[in-house]
Amino acid sequence: xxxxxxxxxxxxxxxxxxxxxxxxxxxxxxxxxxxxxxxxxxxxxxxxxxxxxxxxxxxxxxxxxxxxxxxxxxxxxxxx
Length: 80
Known about the structure:
β1 (about 10-15), α1 and β2 form a beta-alpha-beta unit. Helices cover about 30% and strands about 15% of the residues. It has two helices and three strands, in the order βαβαβ.
């Protein structure tokens, strides 16, 4: 975590609706977050219909976030 002035950098994203966003865009987003944040907060609607294949695609792209801690809250689309 960032030790500059005791600051913790938090990145928060929501409504990604995977697979509506391309794998390349998700990979780029999570790679950027990994380089610029200490914690990633996922705020719901991570998938479009809550299907297992959508979740697998999402997690595959999420691996680009490296080893920063992740906190996630599911949204209504993740339960459809």
